[in-house]
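Appendix B. Raw example, untouched.
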Amino acid sequence: MGEHHLRGLGRRADPGNVEQLDVELERNEAVASAVAVRQLEHQGFSLVDQRSEGGCRGDVRLADSGPFIRPRDLGPDAERRNSERHSVPEQVKGRQGMREQTRTGLWVAYGGVASKLVGLTWDAVLHSLDPNLAATEGIFTLVNPSHSLITLGLGLTVAGLIFELLADVQGLRRAPWATMRPVVGSFVLLVLLGVMSGTGLVSAGSTTTHDHRHAGGQGDMAASAGAGPHAHGTAEEQLASAAKDPLLAPLLKIMRQGGTGAALDHLEEVARHDVSIQESAHGLVHSLGRLSLALYGDVSEAFRQCRETFASGCYHGVLEAHLASQPRLEPRSIADLCTKTVPDDSATILKFQCVHGLGHGLVANVDADNPKALRFCDALPGDWDRSSCYGGVFMENIMIEWHLRFGAPADGGGHVHYTQKSMLREDDPLYPCNAVAEKYRRECYFIQTSAISMFNDNDFRATAQACDRAPSKHIPTCYQSLGRDISGFTLRDPQRSVDLCLLGDDRYEGHCITGVVREIINFSWRTDDGFAFCSTVPEASRALCYKGVGEHVDSLFPDRAQKASECARAPEAYRASCDEGARLVRQS
């Protein structure tokens, strides 16, 4: 008749009804056996334990192989379906184990998130206290405890989520969307954590060039330190403050009466009779440049009022003051600043003073965040502009350290601003040059000996030995920097400068002497002193010395005929060297 009674149930069992129940059990095989029993009871069936009641055919039984229906005469496919059923309790047991694994994986991931958040918060506090920290450590520098927490958190998070994914993926092929949601959620969480980690850690983070053209010995560097801190307040406040400074007051009075040039002439005259003024003059003219902008109110006019006196510090002071007055400076706002400030037909050396001074000013503007200042320099349009700006940044970095160690003799009518440490390490004399990107290294090594000599109290033999440890391609550059510092230290005394250059490796003696002659010319913008110096140096170094003169000829004279005329003053044997430096012939 096709209808049968199930034992213990006064109701007929429809084969289709049983088949539907079979399908439902198939879908819910992951649930525990108790849940399966409740589902069957909800359908109105009574369950019989085969082990206790004999297990007749047609019973719904709870046997070792799990709850199932063994119909008596429900068609040929019924037996096959029941025989093909999986061993549910084993599967249920595995599924329950998987849930335990999933919970374990998520707890591990949550622990990782907590560790990362604590680490990121700690790191943010450390970087707020020391803005230069980003330049002195890598993203995963584990000596920073906060980075250790972040790295641990990242590892725990990834491990926990992978554990979660592996636990869920076992049932994906037959799982409905409800099973896939934890997998998708885990993947999205992993992506978000990666973005969060990168953002937190990053935020918590050339061709022909000129060397930096400041006097480099102890006296000049001490004076330069006065240019480091920038002034706050209105122009009137800065002028009023300078009027109370014993060194600046008489210069400011002359400036008001006859212009910036007259004040520079007076300072130059005083320095001829007072060696102490020579040692501090560069810092004083930095201050005069800042006051020039306060007095005239226009960066182009203030820049025009300056001249080359005392290694061009006045020009640099103008740029420092201008950038200090721009609290919301953007890279695009400096891209054409020097193009607008310096006339197109000006000599290269004048353009250099603007771009180099820009580097000084950027450090002050970004509150001594040197990596950020270098990135601003990267916004400039050409390789030469960028490298000249880099040199100003690295020079200002050393000024900061000098100021923090020894103070500043004059602050240009403002108050000292820098409170952060410099990007220098006394126990690593080549730092940061050995750590910054390659595109910055040449300009860094062009100034680094000023830092080294500051740390070793002008032991130039030791400074030369530090240069010897630089990468081979940068050793000549480091020795040129040493020559510049020696020239400043000796107040451009020819014989003493040569004697100190001889303390280094003989192979780089000529490069040291090149640094000396470049600084001699840079101080006055006159080639006469350079030619005179080169005639006295050891024969082996003369070619490089005259080439150094030619390099300044190239920057001093915009016209090719003028350059050729200047190099014609060199002895016949070294005229080609001068021409090479002046770029009148192809560089060797």
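End of appendix B.
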